[in-house]
Fold this protein.
Amino acid sequence: MIYKILQAKRGGFLLRGSDGTERFCPARGKMRTDGLHAGDDVELDGSGGIVKIGPRKNLLIRPPLANVAACAIVLSPAPAPDFHLVDKLLIQCFRNQIEPILCVNKSDAAGAESLFERARKNYAAAVARILLVSAADGTGAEELRAALPETGITCLAGQSAVGKSSLLNRLLPDLHLEVGELSAKIERGKNTTRACRLYPIGSCREGVVPDNRYIADTAGFSLLDAGEFFFEELKYFYPEFAVLAGECKMRGCNHIDEPGCAVVKWVTGKGNAQFKETGICRERWERYVEIFRELEEFHKNRYK
Ligand SMILES: Nc1nc2c(ncn2[C@@H]2O[C@H](COP(=O)(O)OP(=O)(O)O)[C@@H](O)[C@H]2O)c(=O)[nH]1
Ligand SMILES: [Mg+2]
Ligand SMILES: [Zn+2]
């Protein structure tokens, strides 16, 4: 039987078998277990020791979480949305083969509708699922539940106070996570000790036995480390650029200010006659240029 590590603790691992049973496995035995994290799949021998580790799809750090399938990126009208952060989280998603789900939360509050429209304008060509939800009154909660991958782990990410803990409480009513500013302080204080924990979440499809569908109780994942990749790779993590990439004059065009760049033509309105609707959004492209410059600057200083 395959076991999922729900939580990696100091003395061992909380596991959940594919039959739904949970057990604790002390960190001992023949295998080295110090590289194992929540989200990993393992097998046990007759004496209950970990003997085999399944292939790992990806690994997020701080806190460590393996095999993430999807990430719900949460935005809200208040605190004011940070689109720059959303862009960077999306880059991490696309680099790690994680499906992004954009959640505009607090639909009950002023400004949510227009934020939802702006989010759609920015991201419709990059993100398949963009939802308007409210953790407070439950709007869109079932839609969000249905949008989570049927198998695999979903985590939440986004600014502090956008409602991540509140949404988790909606999805997992038994959890009773602390909500509000105080909890944000506690989270920061606890960051080093409080490990990430996975919770099984039931299937939406009637008659389907929930087997391998989890949501992670963690305040998202850490941001892009500029050293992780070269600035010329950045364009590959903007899926909406792909439709025009073959139209640029220069080979290896980064879509910044190169002569004959189709993306630049499009966002400045000069390519409207030439190209069909591309979905590329000017303000998202402007932030792309900023992020590109940040990465470029980082690498220049590093190799100087
Ligand atoms: N009006 C409204 N307030 C919300 C909603 N979701 C969360 N909040 C409030 O936003 C604040 C931050 O919520 P919390 O879940 O702690 O955010 P987190 O820091 O992202 O985990 C709390 O005061 C919540 O009561 C919502 O859908 N509507
Ligand atoms: Mg929280
Ligand atoms: Zn170009």
The chain has eight helices and 13 strands. The first helix runs from residue 83 to 95. Residues 161 and 180 are 7 Å apart (CA to CA). The pocket of zinc ion (ligand 3) is lined by residues 248, 253, 255, 258, 261-263 (CB under 6 Å).
